[in-house]
Write a structure and sequence with these properties.
14 strands, alpha/beta
Length: about 425
Amino acid sequence: MKKMLSSSISRRSILKTSATAALITAVRTAFPSGAFAATSEPEVKGAKLGFIALTDAAPLIVASEKGLFAKHGMPDVEVLKQASWGATRDNLVLGGASNGIDGAHILTPMPYLMHTGKVTQNNVPVPMAILARLNLDSQGISVAKEYADTGVQLDASKLKATFEKKKADGKEIKAAMTFPGGTHDLWIRYWLAAGGIDPDKDVSTIVVPPPQMVANMKVGNMDVFCVGEPWNEQLVNQGIGFTACTTGELWKGHPEKALGMRADWVEKNPNAAKAMLMAVMEAQQWCDSMDNKEEMSTILGKRQWFNVPPKDVLGRLKGDINYGNGRVAHGTDLYMKFWKDAASYPFQSHDSWFLAENIRWGKFAPDTDIMALVSQVNREDLWRSAAKDLGVAAADIPTSTSRGKETFFDGKVFDPENPSAYLDSLSIKAAS
């Protein structure tokens, strides 16, 4: 990843002058990673990790249920349910020592938005670190039942005329996602824009917590939504709407959630961070086995976790998709990946795409130095260290921080070596 967005600000200048980088420097000075090198034992026995009731939180939940945190020397790790992504952010800002949380199952762009103060109170940066990716694929874009006759699937343009007529009648079109600038926001925007629908002009985007999506569509509060499982499947099971497409159909093998931690916690507790990573990675391997999907669905369905019928979790975990519009697909490869295809490794090139998309929609300035920002937040080096200690096969450890060029369903190509070319190729965007 050498040719990032051109910028009048050099990488060295950013690192010297940005408030966020200064905070990182202060943290690392106070807690040098080598300070605890005399022992490999975790510096602490626990941490507070947040999660949202989404299937891709499974690695944290399974690590807790199966005693994997304890196995790796972290018996006091707490996995705590969060009401929304906004609550996750607020509790990360507080930190575990102040009755918040130390880390979380999190939308991949959120640590960047927090790290730069884009989504925090008074725009105060909270230095963050991404330690692992938690999964690939298996989010969904679902549509209210009233649009079934449009035949909309992967091609969102089939909604265009209906949306225009509804707006002409004075009705608002609402597209729900889970957090501004988060993955679900970016997926639904990409899908709409590819179909010629401007997500900033033709519809109103609203924020709804994942567990509240189905209930809100049931009472007509939204026309379309994007969220992770099990909520798309629950929508279909309750006959309220249908899935137009899964996000794996937009971008096959796309990155989704991450294990994000406060940077100060990681720097103060490098061995504990590695121990937690090893527990989560082992859980990801367990979650990836088809032999474990039914048990996994039962675990996730428990009251303290998702509080849903296991059937709402199981189908799409196995690649069986009832879209709810007459389409039923069995044994697809669109199921959620937790380990295979390097699902756990946090490719820096993937973080670059999320930053580029947030530049596209105005969350970051056009001259943002993507490489500098990724280098501050993405800690793939810690993942590699944990993988080595865990005994992960060399074949399962990527040799590069980039997965290379990525191709989307509409033919657009993202080259992490040249994000500006990708942005230039997009016709609908907020960025100038």
